[in-house]
Every structure is written in structure tokens, then in C-alpha cells.
From TrEMBL:
<keyword id="KW-0058">Aromatic hydrocarbons catabolism</keyword>
<dbReference type="InterPro" id="IPR002078">
    <property type="entry name" value="Sigma_54_int"/>
</dbReference>
<dbReference type="Pfam" id="PF00158">
    <property type="entry name" value="Sigma54_activat"/>
</dbReference>
<dbReference type="InterPro" id="IPR058031">
    <property type="entry name" value="AAA_lid_NorR"/>
</dbReference>
<dbReference type="InterPro" id="IPR009057">
    <property type="entry name" value="Homeodomain-like_sf"/>
</dbReference>
<feature type="region of interest" description="Disordered">
    <location>
        <begin position="439"/>
        <end position="464"/>
    </location>
</feature>
<dbReference type="Pfam" id="PF25601">
    <property type="entry name" value="AAA_lid_14"/>
</dbReference>
<keyword id="KW-0238">DNA-binding</keyword>
<dbReference type="InterPro" id="IPR000847">
    <property type="entry name" value="LysR_HTH_N"/>
</dbReference>
<dbReference type="InterPro" id="IPR000014">
    <property type="entry name" value="PAS"/>
</dbReference>
<protein>
    <recommendedName>
        <fullName>HTH-type transcriptional regulatory protein TyrR</fullName>
    </recommendedName>
</protein>
<feature type="domain" description="HTH lysR-type">
    <location>
        <begin position="430"/>
        <end position="464"/>
    </location>
</feature>
<dbReference type="InterPro" id="IPR030828">
    <property type="entry name" value="HTH_TyrR"/>
</dbReference>
<dbReference type="InterPro" id="IPR003593">
    <property type="entry name" value="AAA+_ATPase"/>
</dbReference>
<dbReference type="InterPro" id="IPR025944">
    <property type="entry name" value="Sigma_54_int_dom_CS"/>
</dbReference>
<keyword id="KW-0804">Transcription</keyword>
<feature type="domain" description="PAS">
    <location>
        <begin position="8"/>
        <end position="53"/>
    </location>
</feature>
Length: 464
């Protein structure tokens, strides 16, 4: 059976066994398919003893009390319960039915996490619930990708922009077509390319990346197409297999495609167009069974217009273009992404940081020019530097350059101002800010590279 096979996947089991949460999976009749270490520990039976048991029997024996899996099966909907374990500990349990293409329940995934409660604990419940929903989403996604399944249903993220991205990725993944991913830096173009590969029939073969901006032009051709033995003096005597050949049956991801030198663009054209290539020193063209995904944060059309990018290559790459949304355009996903990153760094750094609701609120007011990458880095830094386990808005304010709207307006020229008036207003701002930020005029003058008497004179002028 598909789901039994899926949860016998050793890699998936190893990942789930390392999670600090309890994962319990039952089939559509309520028989245990698999549970992770934490779940087995909590129940007091080994994973082998649990396999194949029915949840009602475990309930009768008082081992599950109540069984959220049974409730989800009976009520055919997601069940969420908070259970009191003792005076200090509670447990949030979520059981989610997973439906097959025919609308029948195929699995129930139950995830639970214990938490300490001191007085009001609504905040921790929300946070844990969000985290649990993320895990369920990821498991669902993994389940949908099981090699034996032919399904186009995918888990989706919260925001409209992310849902639309997920839909496009799902649709495109089953097609052999070349894809062009565009979007600002850090939005997740690499991540999206990988997702397309993982969703596709090619997922058991390689996903290889060539970053067109970092590889020297002289090596590009041999990296991509390889060379035959004796192709040129100094060449490896056995020849070299290029990325195109290594990606056979899989996906070749050409990152930062706009950086590809003009001369190389012609060579790539043939590969993109006919899926053929010529290893250096060879006279025989080879055929490649690869899917090409290219990405750029530049406007290729403008580059074509300025003759910096070949129009024929642009049209070949631009069969399907997907614009990956900025983080600003998918702000609704920010809390979930933030919790995921905190969880990731907690595991990496063996700590127990958590985000306060106010901290999340603060993050939604930031402009995120570096998108998801910037969010990930900011969270990593606060996970390392925050003094308390609960991350506060102040922790982020230290890490991110929040621009004060009044401050940024101060640097815009008013229509009615002359240039000298505008420059004087900027100078006033800079001088008074330096006076505020430093303990004395000597330090403030030094920070602006001016003498102390000049600085003090300007302060007197602008303070009046
Ligand atoms: N949907 C997502 N969920 C979780 N992490 C993500 C997601 N999208 C991107 N990331 C993470 O954000 C970081 C930046 O993503 P990625 O490298 O894919 O961006 P990019 O658009 O290719 O950036 P660049 O244009 O600079 O190459 C990576 O660490 C990636 O794992």
C-alpha cells in the first residue's frame, strides 16, 4: 500500500525521529502505520509494538486518552485538543485526515507537542499550533510526492501569492518544458527550482546547479559540456563529464542566467532548443534528456533590448515564466516561515528560542529588501544573540534597519526647495542626529570627519 511504503522510507523515518514533536500515523481504518521515537516514548510502547495496533484498542487500554486519530476518523475533519498532563505540562494534539484523489481518507497524521503552562498560555498554544500545521503541511507535501502516487494535489501556503506560485509549480512540474524563474534576490528562485524538480517525475535523478555568475568564462564550456580525452593539451587524459551529462534524466538549473557571457549564450541555445550538445574536442553531437530551469533577478527583456542577452535564447528560455513573489507580497506567510526558521536554528544550536507575538508583529512592519533570505538570516542572528528564550521586538530592532518614515522623508527634495536649501536641510538632519547619538561634540565631529569647532558652530546654527 502506498502509505505503508511511504512511512517505511528510512530517510523520512530518520528525519521524523529527530523532531522534538510526537508524530503518529494511522491508516483509514485506524490501524497504526508508524510513529516516531517521541511518540513511542510518550506512549510507553516501542515503535515495533505499536505498528498494526488499532487506535480504539490503545484507547481501551488507556494508552491513548482520548485518541484524536479516532475522533478525526469519526468526524472526518481535523481535530485539535489540549490535554492536561500535570500541573505544569499540557499537550496540544492535532489530528489531520489526508484525503486521496477520490475524496476518501487515506491517512490520519497526528502531531502533538507538550508545553509548559504558567497562567495564560494562549500564546504558546497558537505558536505550537502554527508549528504543528507546518509539520503537517510538510508531511502532506512529502506524501503527495511519494513516487508511487500520480497526484497533482499539493499542499499550499497561506497567502494568495504563495498559493498561486504553488499552483504554477505543480502544473509545470509534470511538463518537460523549460522554465524561467524571475524575481528579486532572496525570494526563493533556487528553492522553487528544487521544488519543481522534486515534484516532477525526474526527482529520483540529479538536480544540478550551474551558477553562471561565479564560474570563469574559460571553464564554462567544459563544466557544462565536458570534453573528450586528448581534447586539448593539459586536459585530463580520460576526458571529463560535463554537468549536462551528469544531469541526465534529471534537472539542470542555470542560476543567474543573465550573467552568462554573450559568446556562451549561442552554445547554450542549441542545448535549450534541441537538447543536443557537443563535448569539447568531439565531433559527435550528444542528446541530453534533461529539464532546464533558468533563474535571474534581472529584467532579461531589457538586456535583450540593450543587446546584452540574445533574443533567441531569451525566447527559448521563456516558454514558462514564473515570477516568484517578494516577501512583502506574501506577508501572510511570514509568521509560518519565521516559526520554521526558529525551529531550524533551535535544532542546529540546541536551544529553545521562541518568537513572541509582538516580535512577529514587528517583522511584518519591515520592508524585507532581501526577502526570505534576509528573514532567515535575521532569525538566525536573533537566535544566536537574543538574551532571553522569548525573542522580543527589540531583538529584531537591533538586527534590522527599520526606516523611520519621517526620517526617509527628510531626505527627499521638496519641489519648492532650491538645491542649496535642500542640502542645508540634509546637513541639519545629519548634524543634529550625530549630536544626539554621541556622548560629546568631539566624538560626534569625529564620526562626521569634521573638526570639533566647525561641528559645534553648525549645532548652534541649527539648534536655534
Ligand atoms: N518557501 C520557502 N520556505 C522556506 N525557505 C525558503 C523558501 N524560499 C526560500 N527559502 C530560503 O531562503 C533562502 C534564499 O532562497 P533562494 O536561494 O532560493 O533565493 P533566490 O531567489 O534564488 O536568491 P538569489 O536571487 O540571491 O539567488 C534559502 O536559504 C532558501 O532555503
Amino acid at each position: 500500500m502506498q502509505y505503508n511504503q511511504l512511512f517505511q522510507n528510512k530517510r523520512l523515518q530518520a528525519v521524523l525521529d529527530q523532531l522534538p514533536i510526537s508524530v503518529f500515523v494511522a491508516d483509514h481504518e485506524g490501524f497504526v502505520v508508524w510513529n516516531n521515537h517521541i511518540s513511542a516514548e510518550g506512549i510507553g510502547l516501542s515503535q515495533a509494538e505499536m505498528a498494526g495496533k488499532h487506535v480504539s484498542d490503545l484507547e481501551k487500554q488507556g494508552i491513548l486518552n482520548p485518541s484524536v486519530t479516532r475522533l478525526a476518523l469519526e468526524q472526518k475533519k481535523q481535530i485539535t485538543r489540549v490535554q492536561v498532563i500535570n500541573e505544569h505540562l499540557k499537550q496540544l494534539m492535532v489530528a489531520k485526515p489526508i484525503y486521496n484523489e477520490d475524496g476518501q481518507i487515506e491517512l490520519i497524521i497526528s502531531i502533538s507537542q507538550q508545553f509548559e503552562h504558567i497562567g495564560q498560555d494562549d500564546e504558546s498554544i497558537d505558536e505550537i499550533n502554527d508549528l504543528i500545521q507546518t509539520y503537517i503541511l510538510e508531511l502532506h507535501r512529502f506524501y503527495m510526492q511519494a513516487p508511487s502516487r500520480e497526484s497533482n494535489k499539493r499542499a499550499v501556503t497561506k497567502s494568495k501569492a504563495a498559493k498561486s506560485l504553488e499552483q504554477k509549480v505543480t502544473r509545470i512540474s509534470s511538463l518537460p518544458s523549460t522554465v524561467l524563474l524571475t524575481g528579486e534576490t532572496g525570494v526563493g528562485k533556487n528553492y522553487t527550482a528544487r521544488t519543481i524538480h522534486d515534484y516532477s517525475q525526474r526527482r529520483s535523478n540529479s538536480f544540478l546547479t550551474l551558477n553562471c555568475s561565479t564560474i570563469p568564462e574559460s571553464l564554462l564550456e567544459s563544466e557544462l559540456f565536458g570534453y573528450v580525452k586528448g581534447a586539448f593539451s593539459g586536459a585530463n587524459s580520460t576526458g571529463k563529464t560535463g554537468l549536462v551529462q551528469m544531469a541526465e534524466g534529471g534537472t539542470l538549473f542555470l542560476d543567474e542566467i543573465a550573467e552568462l557571457p554573450y559568446a556562451m549564450q549561442a552554445k547554450l541555445l542549441e542545448l535549450v532548443q534541441d537538447k543536443t550538445f557537443l563535448p569539447i574536442g568531439s565531433t559527435e553531437k550528444r542528446r541530453a534528456d534533461i529539464r532546464i530551469i533558468a533563474a535571474t533577478n534581472q529584467n532579461l527583456e531589457t538586456l535583450v533590448h540593450h543587446k546584452q542577452f540574445r533574443s533567441d535564447l531569451y525566447y527559448r528560455l521563456n516558454v514558462f515564466q514564473i515570477e516568484v513573489p517578494t516577501l512583502k507580497e506574501r506577508l501572510e506567510d511570514l509568521p509560518l516561515l519565521a516559526y520554521q526558521f526558529v525551529q531550524k536554528f533551535n535544532e542546529e544550536y540546541h536551544q529553545q528560542k521562541k518568537l513572541s507575538r509582538e516580535a512577529i508583529e514587528t517583522l511584518t512592519h519591515y520592508s524585507w529588501p532581501g526577502n526570505i533570505r534576509e528573514l532567515q538570516h535575521a532569525i538566525e542572528r536573533v537566535c544566536v544573540f537574543a538574551e532571553n528564550d522569548t525573542i522580543s521586538p527589540e531583538d529584531f530592532k537591533k538586527e534590522l534597519q527599520f526606516t523611520d518614515p519621517e526620517q526617509s522623508l527628510a531626505f527627499e527634495k521638496h519641489e519648492s526647495e532650491t538645491l542649496s536649501q535642500f542640502l542645508e536641510r540634509i546637513e541639519k538632519n545629519v548634524i543634529l542626529q550625530a549630536a544626539d547619538e554621541h556622548r560629546n561634540s568631539r566624538e560626534a565631529a569625529k564620526s562626521l570627519g569634521m573638526s570639533q569647532p566647525t561641528f559645534s558652530r553648525r549645532v548652534r546654527k541649527y539648534e536655534t
